[in-house]
Amino acid sequence: MNKILTTSVAALICVVHSNAASLYWDINDVNTGATDTTSATGAWNGSNLFWNNLADGTAGTFTATTTSLDDLIFSAGANATGACHGCVHHHPDGHPNGKLAEY
Questions:
Q1: Residues 13-43: pLDDT tens digits?
Q2: CB 47 within 8 A of CB 34
Q3: Which residues pair with 44 in a beta bridge?
Q4: Distance between CA 44 and CA 74 in Å, rounded?
Q5: pLDDT at 24
Q6: What's the confidence (pLDDT) of residue 1?
Q7: How far apart are CA 85 and CA 87, in angstroms?
Q8: Beta partners for residue 52, in sequence order
Q9: Whole-number Å distance between alpha carbons of 48 and 43
Q10: φ/ψ (deg, to 5) at 2
Q11: 31 CB burial (10 A radius; 0-12, 13-18, 19+)
Q12: What is the CA radius of gyration of the chain?
């Protein structure tokens, strides 16, 4: 019984985790890094395509929306070293989607 339960829990974790994505704040489109300066200020509002699936900030797949399963990192690459302010607008469900991570 324990072996079946352990296997079932492990399978469930894999299914849930497979839907998560790592997304990186990237306001400069396909240019390397998060920004063309040192500041990556922008609005996370569900319409700006500021989330990139590539950590270096190059030509990945950009999206405006995130889910509560996604890991959100507020800098693609390493060049967003200046002041960085993000505006998070309320979504229809009352909170921004995603988990905030700061590196």
A1: 444 455 689 999 999 988 898 888 888 888 8
A2: no
A3: 88
A4: 11
A5: 92
A6: 57
A7: 7
A8: 24, 62
A9: 7
A10: -60, -40
A11: middle
A12: 16
Tokens of 59: 């030509």
**33-72 pLDDT per residue, tens:** 888 888 888 888 889 999 999 999 898 999 999 988 889 8
Q: What angle do CA 30, 31, 33 make, to 5 degrees?
A: 110
HEC sequence for the chain: CHHHHHHHHHHHHHHHHHCCCEEEECCCCCCCCCCCCCCCCEEECCCCCCEECCCCCCCCCEECCCCCCCEEECCCCCCCCCCCCEEECCCCCCCCCCEEECC
Q: What CA–CA distances, in Å, run from 8 to 14, 17, 18? A: 10, 14, 15
- The residue among 48, 47, 10, 12 whose CA lies nearest residue 29 is 48
State both tokens at 27. Answer: 């306001």
Please tell me the predicted confidence (pLDDT) of residue 98.
46
